[in-house]
Amino acid sequence: MIEYRSIRVGLLGAGSVGSQVARLLLEHSDELAQRVGARIELVGIAVRDTNAKRDADLPPELLTTDVESLIHGSDIVIELMGGLEPARTLVLAAIASGADVVTGNKALLATHGPELFAAAQQVGAQLSYEAAVGGAIPIIRPLRDSLAGDRIDRILGIVNGTTNFILDRMDQTGASLEAALATATELGYAEADPTADIGGYDAAQKAAILASLAFHTSVPVDAVHREGITGVSAEQVESAKRAGYVVKLLAICERLIDDETGDEGVSARVYPALVPREHPLAAVHGANNAVFVEAAAAGPLMFYGAGAGGVQTASAVLGDLVAIARRHVIGGPGTAESTHAELPVLDIGRITTRYAITLEVTDEPGVLEQIAHVFAEHGVSVEQLAQTVAQGSERATLVIGTHEAKESALAETVAALSQSPVVASVASVLRVEGAV
User: Fold this and answer.
1) CA angle, corner 192, sides to 188 and 196, nearest 5?
2) Ramachandran assignment for 145, one of left (phi > 0), alpha (psi -120 to 50 degrees), beta (any other)
3) Model pTM?
4) pLDDT tens, position by position, 110-133
5) In this structure, are residues 336 and 45 in contact, taking their beta carbons and an 8 Å threshold?
6) What contacts 350, CB < 8 A, 6 or more positions away?
7) CA distances from 406 to 68, 283, 342, 374 (A)
8) Which of 118, 186, 204, 389 is most exposed, with the fewest beta carbons within 10 Å of its own?
């Protein structure tokens, strides 16, 4: 029987993910010891209420409300509490005590990442966060390590399972946003307050993390352009289907050349977009996540899988834990984050994209000429146009697809169209992404 040294692990939080991490650590301790070369000993689980119901049966003697003592008695601290405080304070305390940290806290990293990474680097600690983006999908480590020698040009990500479930259900069944959200809530995919998901806040935090990592640049979450799905209608989804597209909430991170300075910059943004049905992201159904990476040498890569779930996300946490524990066995400092490029984060007006615009217009001679004049005035070229007129109606519906143009020019075009006397309403504006 091999005698292993012990690496002490303190767990902060025993929610759906934390409970599963604790269960797996306890059930697979022998197997994990064989992989690491040391025994991973769960020395305590910090919780608010030791008597609360858990998703897994945990030994009551491990539960504690004394979080400070747990941190100071641990070699590795796993933070799964969520939120900004007290998580930030406790993670900094763990790092200051000499412990390495594993976290799945996307809000914490997107808001305070530079501060936390600087603290870890100062003392040679490791801060790992695979579970913060994409649940069970391995995307952080591939970007940080496997693709570190490559140049990432663009990332398109479906990184929020709730909104993907809602939009997929609207596409598959014709349901309204409200009906699809009600189903998502009933099945446990949506929280009682779904604002973080349907408002795009969750996806924006993940976009900030992915952009910072991919472009070796600190991208604050406040610099991420954010639009949620609350304005997406069943009619838009049906129209997209007829045109060969599917509507997806995308987190997009890409390198750009600033046309004003000629210098390279980066863009990070979140919004519902039309994705061609031939694109791999169009086939991501239900509450799954996928991240599509375009690298200069490696080419297109897609990472796909469960974007949430207690046991699934626990897999990512344990992957980080095992990697850190192995470093404890062999020695050496933690891997520092690379933000040395420090490229400027460009305003969304600098991006180049395509629009699909749906207009309600008066059905009379000369309308198309006036519409075309608005586009020409702003330097935007029309790629395709479809017109339908309901029987007996005095209005026509125009669906206009543009060629690529600057976002600023496209936005000005839409604003001018809304003021045109022949346009009754701008019914829908969606960007087109992921051309194949």
Assistant:
1) 95
2) alpha
3) 0.93
4) 999 999 999 999 999 999 999 999
5) no
6) 256, 258, 259, 260, 265, 267, 406, 407, 408
7) 52, 28, 24, 16
8) 186
Catalytic residue, candidates 53, 206, 241, 406: 206
HEC secondary structure over the chain: CCCCCEEEEEEECCCHHHHHHHHHHHHCHHHHHHHHCCEEEEEEEECCCCCCCCCCCCCHHHEECCHHHHHHCCCEEEECCCCCCCHHHHHHHHHHCCCEEEECCHHHHHHHHHHHHHHHHHHCCCEECHHHCCCCCCCHHHHHHHCCCCCEEEEEEECCHHHHHHHHHHHHHCCCHHHHHHHHHHCCCCCCCCHHHHCCHHHHHHHHHHHHHHCCCCCCHHHCEECCCCCCCHHHHHHHHHCCEEEEEEEEEEEEECCCCCCEEEEEEEEEEEEECCCHHHHCCCCEEEEEEEECCCEEEEEEEECCCHHHHHHHHHHHHHHHHHHHHHCCCCCCCCCCCCCCECCHHHCEEEEEEEEEEECCCCHHHHHHHHHHHCCCCEEEEEEEECCCCCEEEEEEEECCEEHHHHHHHHHHHHHCCCEEEEEEEEEECCCC
From residue 129, alpha-carbon distances to 113, 150, 315, 436 in Å are 11, 21, 12, 32
Cβ 143 vs Cβ 119: under 8 Å: no
Is residue 261 very low, low, confident or very high in pLDDT (cuts 50, 70, 90)?
A: confident
Q: Per mean pLDDT, which range of 308-312, 332-336, 417-421 is the poorest?
A: 332-336
Pairing of strands 100-103, 76-79: parallel
How many C-beta atoms surround the C-beta of residue 69 within 10 A? Answer: 13
* Burial degree of 123 (CB within 10 A; 0-12, 13-18, 19+): middle
Give me the pLDDT at residue 2, please. 64
CB 400 within 8 A of CB 384: yes
- Asked about 206 being catalytic, the answer comes back as yes
Q: How many CA atoms lie within 13 A of 105 on its CB side?
A: 28
> What is the pLDDT of the chain when averaged over all its residues?
93
The amino acid sitting at 42 is L
